[in-house]
Amino acid sequence: MKIDVLIIRIGFIVLLTAVGWMLNPFADVDSVNTWNLGMEGRRFLSAFVGLIIALIVIAFEMRVRRANLRTLIGAAIGSTLGIIGAYLIGMLISSQETAAVPAEMKTFLTVALAFFMAYIGLMVGAAKGEYIDLTALGGIFSDKNVKKDYKILDTSVIIDGRIADVAETGFLGGTLIIPQFILTELQQVADSADSSKRQRGRRGLDMLQRLRNNSSLDIQIVETDFPKVKEVDLKLIELGQQLAGVVVTNDFNLNKVSELRGVSVLNINELANALKPVVLPGEAMKVFILKEGKEYNQGVAYLDDGTMVVVDNARKLIGNSAEIAVTSVLQTTAGKMIFGRLWEDNEDIQHENSTNIHDTRSENMRKQARGFGQHEMIEEN
Asked: What is the pLDDT of residues 121-179, one digit of tens each?
């Protein structure tokens, strides 16, 4: 397809250049006489102008191809109205007396006004084309490439509250759908006699208000209901099938039932598990100390994914590999940082000489098992 379009464009350029050469529109133009061009020179000038016009038309065509149907219809309507307005004003200018307005000025004003009004109508129509409702045309025009992205929020994910944080970071696109039966359920929970349920319901309503106050989010409340379906989870699945949308939840059971019914699901808990740290405090790892840290006697290493590892008392090991114990993991908006200390300095998880450093969890369990009968261990547990 791309090769065919390229061939057509090249053919259009060659055709318009050849037409300019053969027709030679500059042959009888008096202003060209000042350039002292002969007939052949005028032909070359005509062919060059034809080439430039062809390139401009192709550039305009490439830009128009990326526009959606609503923008094109709006631009066409706007430019047409602009040209009509320019014509009416031009008639008013042409009706003036010759002594009042010279003929040259009339021509200039008419042409300039036509270009001005056509340009303004084109730009304004293209900008406002998104407000055109193509369904009102009875299906004559339809932009089939536009696919709605609906995400239907479950009660549990609204009460959870993390959906607001995810949406504010920009990772949750599309239109957020809040069904009326979900709002009804939240209001019932907020009015519950149980204090814990009442608190959870009010938290959910606060999260909804926070989402609606975010101007960058597209939120719609739909009145669609399914009276024959009693359970709210099944209503969500039915709505997801009707809108071809995605159900956003953290309910494991709803997740499984939705998948069985062919409805896509986004689970916030699965997202949280996918973003959990690679290492946990107390685990062992081997790193290469690359440089000195900012604090005294610190060493800095980097993992394969670029994560910075800051190691205490590792300045003496710059240029060497070291076995460390992770003490903490810091997650920030700029990325993740791991803090640790040399394994031999970590007295709390010091291993025996024959123990593999990568088996820290199993070793701790064996230590607890060996000391299970001791009175000190019993008191600690």
From this structure: 888 887 877 677 666 665 555 555 556 789 999 998 999 888 888 888 888 888 899 99
Rounded Cα distance between 156 and 134, Å, is: 36
163 and 229: one domain?
A: yes
pLDDT(370) > 70: no
Single out the residue of 256, 283, 279 nearest to residue 267, CA to CA. Answer: 256
Neighbours of 380 (CB within 10 A): 9
The CA-based angle 172-175-179, given to 5 degrees, is 110
Q: How far apart are CA 326 and CA 309, in angstroms?
A: 9
Residues 8 and 127 in one domain: yes
- Residue 210 domain-assigned (yes or no): yes
Mean pLDDT of 279-308: 87
Q: What is the pLDDT of residues 331-342, one digit of tens each?
A: 766 677 899 999
Domain edge (last residue) among 104, 137, 170: 137
Beta bridge partners of 288: 321
Both 206 and 326 in a single domain?
Answer: no
Give, for 157, the enclosing helix (H) or strand (E): helix 155-160
Beta-bridge mates of residue 302: 308
Q: Is 203 among the domain residues?
A: yes
CA distance 17 to 43: 10
173 and 270, same domain (yes or no): yes
Domain, as residue range, for 333? 284-372
Per-residue pLDDT tens over the stretch 179-227: 999 999 999 999 988 888 899 899 999 999 998 888 888 888 888 888 8
Distance separating alpha carbons of residues 34 and 45, to the nearest angstrom? 14
The domain that holds 236 is classified in CATH as 3.40.50.1010
Residue 144 resides in a domain: no
**C-beta separation of 299 from 317 below 8 A:** yes
